[in-house]
Amino acid sequence: MNALNIEKGSSSHSAYDLRASREEGVERRTLAVLVDNEPGVLARVIGLFSGRGYNIESLTVAETDHTGHLSRITIVTSGTPMVLEQIKAQLGRLVPVHDVHDLTIECPAVERELALVKVVSTGDKRVEALRLKDAFRAKVVDSTLESFVFEITGSPQKIDAFVDLMRPLGLMDVARTGVAAITRGPEPL
């Protein structure tokens, strides 16, 4: 979304917004995919989605096992239960994929995201932006006489709510990392 749409208070919904109207039977899922950390693996995973017309709402990837050269890809996607099962099966058949886990249904999981939110304002709007920052436990990571950059972490819904409240206060830009998710409790994935 560009700054112009943000300034005008665009009515488009976030990819994470579960309140947005959705086709009957469409579900949102968070998948954790353990893959070899080698060139081209991410392109193959993304190619599987684009080649079949599946949507990726969020994607994060990083090496998680340096000695084993393994990376974890966290994908937030949506579809009917049948489509989601196809996605998991097709991911599992890719050669560099070791495991595919549906964190939404297999086990309780924690999802978090980080966002940087730039707000340009003065006067009362500036004071209100700082008040809301405290309510959402965001941090100021850059400040000028006319702008702030806030860092906020939390669920995608928390970040959506913060961004929505900053719109009338001078929201200028938003950068989001995408969802990182992990299972709850002592058991490994």
Automatic annotation (TrEMBL):
Catalyzed reactions: 2 pyruvate + H(+) = (2S)-2-acetolactate + CO2
InterPro entries per record: Acetalactate_synth_ssu, Acetolactate_synth/TF_NikR_C, Acetolactate_synth_ssu_C, ACT-like_dom_sf, ACT_dom, AHAS_ACT, AHAS_small-like_ACT
Enzyme class, broadest EC rank: transferase
Domain spans labelled ACT: 30-105
CC terms in the record's Gene Ontology section: cytosol
Pathway: Amino-acid biosynthesis; L-isoleucine biosynthesis; L-isoleucine from 2-oxobutanoate: step 1/4; Amino-acid biosynthesis; L-valine biosynthesis; L-valine from pyruvate: step 1/4
EC number of the protein: 2.2.1.6
GO MF term (any one): acetolactate synthase activity
Keyword Transferase: yes
Similarity-based family: Belongs to the acetolactate synthase small subunit family.
Name assigned to this protein: Acetolactate synthase small subunit
Species whose genome carries this gene: Rubrimonas cliftonensis
